Amino acid sequence: MAIFAKLKAKLFGVKNDKYDQGLKKSRLSFTQKLKALSSKHKIVNQEYFDELEEILISADVGHKMASKIVSEINQEARKRKISQSAEINNIIIDKIFAIYTDEEVVSTKLNFNDKGLTCFLIVGVNGSGKTTTLAKLAYKLKDLGKKPLLVAADTFRAGAVEQLKLWSEKLDVAIQMPIKPQQDPGSVVFQGLEQALKNNYDVVLIDTAGRLENKVNLMQELNKINKIIKQKLGHEPDEVLLVLDATTGQNGIIQAQEFEKIVPVSAIVLTKMDGTAKGGIILAIKEYLDLPVKLVGLGEQATDLEEFDLEQYLYNLTRDLFTGADDE
Ligand SMILES: Nc1nc2c(ncn2[C@@H]2O[C@H](COP(=O)(O)OP(=O)(O)OP(=O)(O)O)[C@@H](O)[C@H]2O)c(=O)[nH]1
Ligand SMILES: [Mg+2]
């Protein structure tokens, strides 16, 4: 059975509103373009495949990934002697699914420390959504019955500490703040970890600055924070979450490569998926970075953070392609 039919059978009735709403722009753009392509070329030819590749690239799938997907679709179509473009849509989803999973199960579960305090360090360029993601995560953890502690280690940007403090009040979650203005971020992290250990918190969530005076300083700062965590806990952070803004497109890949040189990034959080029509960035991340996307931001509220679910993602990105075709 084709993947889409399987997904539909599995997900039918368990509609995930966050994915449904959050991927609306991407879905409209993707299906509109694919439908237009199928009506332009009823029978597939080279031009059809070239245009299909363009559509994937325009959805931020990335050149390499787009060309891989198209070449596999082309092969499969030949093998199955499919010449009608409308029939190709099924293969597109099958191939995307197969390429993303690479026949293996991709883990999207956050890594918790089963021996003691769990530490999540949040990094990313300014404005990517770090502080908001941290708040959303705290909300999720609290909902799971865990005791999270927010650590306001962005002492560089004016208003950053205050922003996190407002979230902490809104969500009723504890926060470690700097004791004095412009305090060294490393020492705020140190104090946060001390407090968490002393008062039996389950998870510390460390917010960091997205920009300092220059890139070297930012690197040194993150390096230092990471060292302090290692010294204090005896191990690396359980997750170093790199926050990428989905609306920045391929630029995000370059940012990730830069951050990976500084800290041991363990996973990606892709924010603002609701604000982009280019949901294909997830596939580009798979192609260029050997990092799992573990969380997606689908709005500005505390509840708008979801574990990345490939099945929900693909289903909600493509389901309009098949409306009306179901009963045929
Ligand atoms: N629509 C939408 N907006 C988001 C999402 N995540 C964050 N934002 C918004 O993006 C803006 C920046 O978010 P912040 O969390 O302050 O970003 P930051 O990375 O902490 O920024 P700096 O502290 O300046 O480095 C805010 O207006 C957020 O509400 C999301 O998933 N969807
Ligand atoms: Mg911030």
TrEMBL record:
The entry's keywords: Cell membrane, Cytoplasm, GTP-binding, Hydrolase, Membrane, Nucleotide-binding, Receptor
Source domain of life: Bacteria
E.C. designation(s): 3.6.5.4
Protein residues bound to GTP: 124-131, 207-211, 271-274
One Pfam family it belongs to: SRP54_N
Domain SRP54-type proteins GTP-binding: 292-305
GO MF annotations in UniProt: GTP binding; GTPase activity; signal recognition particle binding
Main location: membrane
Keyword Nucleotide-binding: yes
Reactions the enzyme catalyzes: GTP + H2O = GDP + phosphate + H(+)
Keyword Magnesium: no
Gene Ontology annotations of biological process type: SRP-dependent cotranslational protein targeting to membrane
Entry GO terms, CC: cytoplasm; plasma membrane
Cell location: Cell membrane; Cytoplasm
Subunit: Part of the signal recognition particle protein translocation system, which is composed of SRP and FtsY.
Family as reported in the entry's similarity comment: Belongs to the GTP-binding SRP family. FtsY subfamily.
Function: Involved in targeting and insertion of nascent membrane proteins into the cytoplasmic membrane. Acts as a receptor for the complex formed by the signal recognition particle (SRP) and the ribosome-nascent chain (RNC).
Classification via PANTHER family: SIGNAL RECOGNITION PARTICLE RECEPTOR SUBUNIT ALPHA
Protein name: Signal recognition particle receptor FtsY
Organism: Spiroplasma platyhelix PALS-1
